[in-house]
Amino acid sequence: MAGYRASRSTLSFQVCNGYTNQRLSILYGFVLAKTLGRHPVLPRLILDGVQGMNKKPSKVQLTLDNAGGFFTFYDRATFTHFMHYAGVEYIEPDVCVVVGGLATCCSCICCS
Q1: I want to staple 15 with a disulfide (CB 3.0 to 4.6 A). Which of 1, 22, 47, 61 is the partner?
Q2: Contact predicate 97/103, CB 8 Å
Q3: Cα–Cα distance between 67 and 49 in angstroms, integer?
């Protein structure tokens, strides 16, 4: 990614449950990353992100079957424009690679 400095730490986070909870997770993750001076790693989103309709709340987790790319939901050009305006440089998840069960990337919080 243009402008990415390998010496700078990143912050990765996950989302769960319905669309609103996923959006809140993204917001909190980006605010935390900005506050800590880290680059947020865009999370994979849950395509069928709905909560159970029964009385007992259920938790929807990210799996290979229901995962979608971040830009499945968000327009890349618009998102990038506003993140640049806010002074946030983000990392797309493809930059971090899992090798033998260990993530090797740019000193993500998940790697340290």
Answers
A1: 22
A2: yes
A3: 10
3-state SS, 10-27, equals EEECCCCCCHHHHHHHHH
Its pTM stands at 0.68
- The residue ranges of every structural domain in the chain are 10-104
Q: What is the DSSP annotation of the chain?
A: -TT--TTS-EEE----SSHHHHHHHHHHHHHHHHHHT-EEEPPPEETT----SSSS-------TTTEE-GGGTS-HHHHHHHHHHTT---B-GGGSEEETTEEESS-BTTT-
Q: Are 66 and 47 in contact (CB under 8 A)?
A: yes
Rg (CA), the chain: 15
* pLDDT tens column, 27-63: 999 999 999 999 999 998 888 766 655 545 566 666 7
